[in-house]
Amino acid sequence: MWYMLFFIFLFCNRIAAKRRSLLAKLQVCKDHVSGALCPHKNKKVQVLTIGALHQIDCSSLQSAASAWHEGIGLLPKPLLVVNIGGPTSHCKYGEDLANELTSSLQNVIPTCGSVRISFSRRTPKMVADLVVLKLGNHPKVYIWNGEGPNPHMGHLALADAFVITADSISMLSEACSTGKPVYVIGAERCRWKFTDFHKSLRERCMVRPFTGKENICKERWTYSPLNDTKEAAGAVISALEDRGWRLQ
C-alpha cells in the first residue's frame, strides 16, 4: 500500500496547479502516539496511525512465503526471527542490551526449532560481534551477514514469532502487521514517542516483553494485525473522492 500513497502524493502535486490542491503529508505527530497523515488545511481528514507506514500486506506476505519457501519455509518449527536495530537518541543501549538479548535467547532456543537473526544498518559493530560470538556456532541459529538477498520479507512471512529491539518503530510495525506473536526487548530504555508507541502496542495485545522465560513452542496469542497503511491510503482516497477526483 505504500506505493499507492506515493502515487497519490504525486497525483495530488501534479494537478495542484490546475485545480484546488490536496496535499497528503506524512509526518511525526509530537503530541500523539505516532505519525500522522495530515491533508493540508483540512483537519477533518487527519489520520493518526499507531505505527509506521510500510509495504507489508497479505499479498506481499504470500508472495514472500512462496519465494522463500525452500530457503526458510522448510526449516524446523517453530521459527523465531530476531531483528536487531540500533540505539537512537530516544532509545539508548549498547553492549549491555546485547548481553541481555543473547542470554535470553540462549534460554529459549531449546523451545525453538530454528532461530534466524538479522541486523540493521544501525546496529553497532560491538553489538553484532557479541551476538555472533555468543550464538554464531549454535546449530539452531542462522545469522544473516548482510550478503546475498535480504531475507527480511521471508522472515516476516514464515516466522512463527519475533523478537525485536525496541528502537525500531518500522520493524515493530511490520511484524505487528502479520498478526504473529511479537516480543520486544529494551522498551524500558525508550523515551519520547517510543514510550507511547510501545504502550499502544501492549494495550492492543500485539507485543509482550522478551524475558528469556518464554516457551516459543507453546506460547501463542492472537490480535488484530496492525493495518495502518491500508487505513491511511483509504483516508486519502476518500479525501480525493470528496473533491470529485478519482483514481483510475
UniProtKB/TrEMBL annotation:
InterPro entries: Elm1-like. GO terms for biological process: mitochondrial fission. One of its GO terms (cellular component) is mitochondrial outer membrane. Keywords: Signal. Residues 1-17 form the signal peptide. PANTHER family: MITOCHONDRIAL FISSION PROTEIN ELM1, OS02G0535700 PROTEIN. This is Mitochondrial fission protein ELM1. The lineage of its organism: Eukaryota, Viridiplantae, Streptophyta, Embryophyta, Tracheophyta.
